[in-house]
Amino acid sequence: MLDIKFVRENPDVVDKSCESRQNAHWDRERFFELDEERRSVIAEVEKLQADRNAISKQIGVLMREGKKDEAEAAKAQVSANKGRISELDEKRGAVEKELFDLVAAIPNIPHESVPYGKDDSDNPEVRAWGEPTKFDFEPKAHWDLGPSTGMIDFDRGVKLAGTRFYLLGGNGALMERALINFFIDQHVKAGFKEWWPPVITNYDSLFGTGQLPKFDEDLFHVSGGMYLIPTAEVMLTNIHRDETLDASQLPLLYTAFTPCFREEAGSAGRDTRGIIRVHEFDKVEMVKFAKPEDSMNQLESMVAEAERCLQLLGLPYHVVTLCTGDIGFSATKCYDIEVWLPSYNAYKEISSCSNCWDFQARRANIKYKDPSEFKGSRYVHTLNGSGLAVGRTMAAIIENYQNADGSITVPEVLRPYMRGLEVIKPEA
Description:
- The protein contains 12 helices and 18 strands.
- By secondary structure, it is of the alpha+beta class.
- The protein has an 8-stranded mixed β-sheet. The chain has a 3-stranded antiparallel β-sheet with strand order 5-7-6.
- The chain is elongated.
- Catalyzes the attachment of serine to tRNA(Ser). Is also able to aminoacylate tRNA(Sec) with serine, to form the misacylated tRNA L-seryl-tRNA(Sec), which will be further converted into selenocysteinyl-tRNA(Sec).
């Protein structure tokens, strides 16, 4: 969430930011109407309070002077002032709520280093690692290799839960667990603290990270006004909601594995085959809390951490910077890491690493204090990134490590996590 003072003083910046994003807008005229009304109400209340205090002091004097009628009139005036102040307080509450809701719907301001663009076709490549895999035979897609090896069962997944769900069996289930443990182990070695959070969350947590109220239709609702999490980012970031951290703790590095649940509203017809875009998937997430002056460095190191996992797995990928038209609601800068998928003959997103500046911290009220540098407290900067999406990693392994006979070679770093298994063979 943006600072209301910032919006008031920089409306042209907000205009430009919204114009550069997809489907972003704000009601500038209504903002200034509400802002002026709020300040007018505050000014009137302050005047009434000053008058009340002055009149109250006069009442005692009038009583001592025997001016009972004048004292009673003064009391009546104090009572009237009190009633008017109560009315104005109620009005102020309504105005401030509308103003808060208006500002809460404005997306974050893209960092000055973010390139301008209309959509993902304008995302510039930063670097690439490895060469797109070449085969001396006709390669198959993971949606064919998965069933033939007994790793993925699409039909029974649909039978059990519906479209865009799938079932993992045998070595598919084994590889899923192997990837989760491998990713977590790598992040813990890099200094991240592992957490095991719930997968059901509340409105406040989703508001804090920016999913609500804007993206309600993308979420799975459960009873009691609760939701299934779309990403562990929600839980990890909100661990410190309404807390003030000590500067000596920063940066804080957190990681967690969770299943993730997304309605995928508006994605009809996109990536309908395979396990690239589904309603439930596993993901290992990274979250950081950093000082403002260090957050961009922490973003770069987060991207490097996700890249390291792909390099150890030997999967070709490239990194792109998201342009203004493709960047997420809460992010000020974002990199996508896209892994090579032969079935698409293209790179597909496997990790998105974002610096949210103080946008989420302001929504979730997460601050830090450093008495050696400043009085009071300031908002931290929050960062998040996939490390990595497990299902998409499995799809990439199946396709890039396939052999002419339909078998799949297990990446060497995964073998200790898969009982020493070196090759997954087709089922008879």
